[in-house]
């Protein structure tokens, strides 16, 4: 129904009695919410040319997108925010995120910077995360779910690496429901030792037709209380 076709026609396609045209492949992929990278692969397998371009992020024609993203990151201050690619590698970050990661081992900040690795590595933020047992598995479960939706060797390797770094999964999680896991982080710098409580939002481009743009994610950290808000502002002071 979502694809605007009939069960009979779909059955013919599945059984090989009917060959789908390009528009039908796109409609079915859209209905199944298949990522556009995989839609290109479906088209290739069916003998059609890919229809979704994949432009390098530093290409001049993407300058308006890059500018808009930088404005969003800057506008989120004094709260941390990052833009990452489909593997969780850092594309851009605002000053608040850099303040939050102060004290992280330099080798973890050499490009390409894996944001999940920075969060969970013992030389990263892990020693400062108060609820590491909950937060680590929140991150790992999200990566594994993404790897199931979009099979990718790099994501699977990252999930395996982080699983080895994580503490045992908690049997009970009384402080949250489902995936509602706040990040409880001891601050570094001017607010050294005090606890920040952060919640996260994850945003993606819902109408992008370029593979590169469609795979970008904006992850923003928001203060869960007034004390955290004040500390984040303090961390940005010269």
Automatic annotation (TrEMBL):
GO terms, molecular function: DNA binding
Signal sequence, renumbered to the chain: none
Domain HTH cro/C1-type: 2-39
SUPFAM superfamilies reported in the protein's UniProt record: lambda repressor-like DNA-binding domains
Taxonomy, superkingdom: Bacteria
Pfam family, one: MLTR_LBD
Entry protein name: XRE family transcriptional regulator
């Amino acid at each position: 129904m979502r694809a605007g076709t009939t069960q009979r026609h779909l059955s013919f396609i599945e059984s090989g009695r009917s060959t789908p045209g390009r528009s039908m492949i796109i409609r079915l992929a859209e209905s199944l919410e298949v990522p556009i990278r995989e839609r290109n692969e479906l088209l290739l397998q069916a003998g059609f040319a890919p229809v979704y371009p994949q432009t390098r992020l530093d290409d001049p024609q993407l300058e308006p997108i890059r500018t808009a993203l930088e404005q969003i990151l800057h506008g989120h201050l004094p709260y941390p925010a990052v833009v990452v690619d489909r593997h969780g590698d850092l594309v851009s970050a605002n000053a608040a995120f850099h303040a939050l990661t102060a004290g992280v081992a330099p080798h973890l900040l050499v490009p390409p910077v894996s944001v999940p690795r920075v969060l969970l590595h013992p030389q990263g933020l892990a020693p400062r995360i108060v609820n590491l047992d909950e937060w680590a598995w929140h991150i790992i479960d999200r990566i594994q779910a993404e790897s199931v939706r979009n099979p990718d060797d790099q994501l699977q390797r990252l999930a395996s690496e982080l699983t080895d770094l994580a503490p045992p999964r908690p049997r009970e999680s009384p402080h949250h429901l489902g995936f509602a896991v706040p990040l409880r982080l001891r601050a570094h710098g001017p607010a050294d030792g005090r606890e920040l409580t952060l919640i996260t939002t994850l945003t993606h481009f819902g109408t992008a037709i370029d593979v590169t743009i469609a795979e970008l994610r904006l992850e923003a950290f928001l203060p869960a209380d007034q004390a955290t808000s004040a500390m984040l502002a303090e961390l940005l002071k010269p």
